[in-house]
Design brief:
Layout (H helix, E strand, L loop, with lengths): L1 E8 L2 E10 L5 E5 L2 E7 L4 H27 L3 E3 L2 E6 L2 E3 L5 E3 L3 H26 L7 E5 L6 E4 L4 E5 L7 H13 L8 H10 L3 H10 L4
Parallel strand pairs: 2-4, 9-11
Antiparallel strand pairs: 1-2, 3-4, 5-6, 6-7, 7-8, 10-11
Helix pairs in contact: 2-3, 3-4, 3-5
The structure holds zinc ion.
């Protein structure tokens, strides 16, 4: 059994579609400006409106947020676009993840990226016979992609590089680790870089031009 009515919130009219079911509690959701309510058979319209008075604000805010997220700039992880539908992000691998805001989603992309950078730094350290291993930091860096601090034996990577493909990120990791052997950007330095990253030149151009893949 279905019924509909109009609910007014902040001088705006919202259609409400009520579906009566064999259930114990009332549930509310908002999609494209329409409230969908599932309610037990015995519930009155007055009772449903009381619930809307309580939940409308939150549901409208969330609907607006999701709309702005959908219209916002596209997000990429490891070179592939992250598909966003409502509060669900789908990665190129098919894996899905929920989030509460764009900020939250970007934080989560940075975590995934951080894990990768740490893991790959360890991988290249062993390949390049670098001991002891470096401390790895992911931090806000505006003008540089990464840095190697000899003093603190720390490699830092900029936190906004999650959009780039793994190959491009690897080229940055190799660059920073090559500074373990040569602290300048000399021929010797680049001979180390190219040994472990033969496509370094291409990858580095992409990094600088913000070409993700
Ligand atoms: Zn350098």
């Amino acid at each position: 059994m279905k019924k509909s009515f109009i609910y007014i919130y902040n001088n705006k009219e919202y259609p409400v579609e009520v579906t009566y079911k064999m259930k114990k509690s009332i549930s509310y959701r908002l999609k494209d400006g329409v409230f969908f309510v599932n309610a037990p058979y015995m519930v009155t319209q007055k009772r449903i409106k009381e619930g809307l008075d309580k939940f409308a604000k939150k549901l409208i805010e969330r609907d607006n947020l999701n709309k702005s997220l959908e219209n916002d700039k596209r997000l990429f992880l490891f070179g592939d676009e992250v598909k966003i539908e409502g509060d669900v992000a789908t990665f190129s691998s098919g894996e899905k993840m929920t989030f509460v805001s764009r900020e939250d989603l970007i934080d989560k992309l940075i975590w995934i990226y951080s894990d990768y950078m740490i893991e790959r730094t360890r991988y290249y350290e062993s390949l390049m016979s670098i001991v002891p291993s470096y401390k790895v930091k992911i931090k806000k860096m505006k003008s540089r992609f990464g840095s190697n601090s000899k003093q603190t034996h720390t490699i830092s990577y900029a936190n906004h590089l999650y959009s780039y493909s793994r190959d491009i990120l690897d080229s940055l990791i190799v660059h920073e680790l090559a500074h373990h052997f040569f602290f300048d950007h000399s021929k010797n330095f680049y001979s180390v870089v190219y040994k472990y990253c033969p496509n370094y030149k291409k990858d580095n151009v992409k990094l600088k031009k913000r070409i993700f893949k």
